[in-house]
Amino acid sequence: MKIVIYISTVLLLFSCSKEELGPQCISCNEENTNTEYADLLIVNEGNFGNGSGAISLYKPSNKSVTQNLFFQANGTFIGNVAQSITQIDDKAYIVINNSNKIEIVDIHTFNTLATISGFNSPRYLLPINNNKAYVTDLYSNSIQIVNLTNNTISGSISLSGWTEELILVNDTVYVCDVTNDNLLIINSTTNTLIDSVKLGIQPNSIIKDQNNKLWIMCDGGINEATPKLIKFNPQARSIEATYLFPNTSESPGNLKINTTGNQLYFINSAIYRMNINDVSLPTNPFITNNGNIYYGLGIDPINEDVYVSDAIDYVQNGIIFRYSNTGALVDQFNSGIIPGEFLFIK
Amino acid sequence: MLPPTMQVSFNDENQKDESLRALIEWKGLTGNLEYKWINSMVKNKLIYTNTLAKINSKSNSQLINSKLFTKYYLKHNFFLSNNISIEYESAKSDGYSALHNRTNYTWLLGLTKNFKRLNVNAFNRFTQIGTHSQLFSPSAGMSYRLLKHKQLNIKLNAGINYNYPTFNDLYWSPGGNINLKPEQAKMSEFGISYSHKKDQTTINIEGTTFYAYVYDWIIWQPTINGFWSPSNLKEVENKGIELSLKAKTTIRKIKFVSTINYSYTLSTNKKAQSDFDNAIKKQLIYVPFHQINYSIRGMIKNYTLSYNYNYTGKRFMSTDNNWYLPANFLSDVSISKRFKTSKKSNFSTSFKVNNIFNQDYQSIAWRAMPGRNYLFTLTFQFN
User: I need a labelling partner for A338 at 20 to 30 A (CA). Which of A41, A225, B152, B377 fits?
Assistant: First the structure.
């Protein structure tokens, strides 16, 4: 029985190895870096359920990249499916969809300040004033009202279905209602729904131009209808123009605008740029996709550089391409898993 | 009720599975013909509900299968195998736009010949899955005893295998891809084994190396149209070694059986899907390099005491191998006793402690697994 005794000894040695628990990340062991004005934060969703959501930092000035800011500052992972990020003063509000929470961090050190919990499936946060914000939701049939002073949910506005991106014009909030294909109009003083306007199938993104007109992208669902880009007049509460995409198989999204508020950008396989005074949709892409599947889009508010992500196979660190405002490739670098949203620090 | 992951504060997911199985088997021997006929039916029903996400999804599937295995002895050491299987599959799910069914035929034909120290075999498998037919899927093997009076054997096997897309791969709406090709795997293995018996002690040692290359590996990924769809996107190389050692002995009326298995697997992604794909030449996710299983059992009279140890090495969670789950090792201990109640029946009781060292581990990321837990079992057996 000498053999058996020998094997038992080997197993004991195995049992004594260093203990690690739960997912580990190799690129998480980099040096921590503080962020500054004009830096780019990238929200990496991570895989559903497996907690690989992370924030990457890119400094456009020297092209340096730092991964996993939240983990390095706090020693814990941010959670699963990091959906969006919003800056309010010196704080970043990171919405973690499947973990039902919002993490508040110091935007420079990334040290955690507070956690707002009790959401259902939060998507986007919009500050209304110094002590109030709205949070849209995938499943809760409501918009949550957040008290920014004590970081709690103070109430909700009952709706039906999935609410996505939202924007504030004066004291009125305009919300993409994906389920019912509506633009919801909410009085932010009384927190009440005052009107809803039918758009195209599945409005997913909304921005405001230099003339205070709203632009909404409707992706048309999965082969349901032709996608639409809609120009909306908030004063008159009416649609001013509708731009129809030619095919139902197209799925445009990620509508963004430059700081001046006159150039629209969006992804529709390739990246398109369109002036707000153009009478029709652009036929030629601003940047072709070169076989990549573009996922998220960001426009640098200072120099109008275009950042676009490709999640590759959605189970590895994605890649970010940086283009100048003439469409020339400036840089490319890896971020985290499924890079979806960009924030330029104000 | 499905438990939430550790990063979710609450959820309300339920899954209900119902399964009905029936099986009838005949076997016999007439002249030179040995046969076995198996008929089976499986009905499955799955209901998944998620109140948070307002999902209520049902799926029903059914499988009827008839298999006939025959061996025809041309000589006492030379036989023809002829196996025929006919299978009818049907499934209905909220994820499909219609009810889908297919009939699958498999016909395996082969020859096996045993010489004094050599055994050789060759087979071909014909398959038709739905409308897709595959005429050739050959395999061949041999084993040879190297020494005349020692149990030292080598074996060699090679073949081509096909893995067919499932109904979900083909028909899930949206995304299902009816143009999927079957995955093709070219496989080979070489092994050497030795066994030795002396007095009360038997030792078996076996080592195998394997190599497989899979073409047209099916994988689901998002498309430019915003939904997920499967395609024959990858090529995977699978190679490694497996070692096992088994020892049996009796010391002072206590019978000991001890087994150790070790495997080393390299499962590598060989095809980049774009210039920026960092998954190429990396280990596939959730496939550990190292795995060890060790068990020892001691038996005296009607009592059995056993210890089982399982080691699963580091497993990657991301295809670029940047995220991983650390290795885990689990130990279980059990004691059981068998009682003879009559000539034709007996019953046994066992008490088992799973995860005896209360190891924290996750089989899947953020899905906590049970700590130390106890299991008490009663088994009745009638002959």
Answer: A225
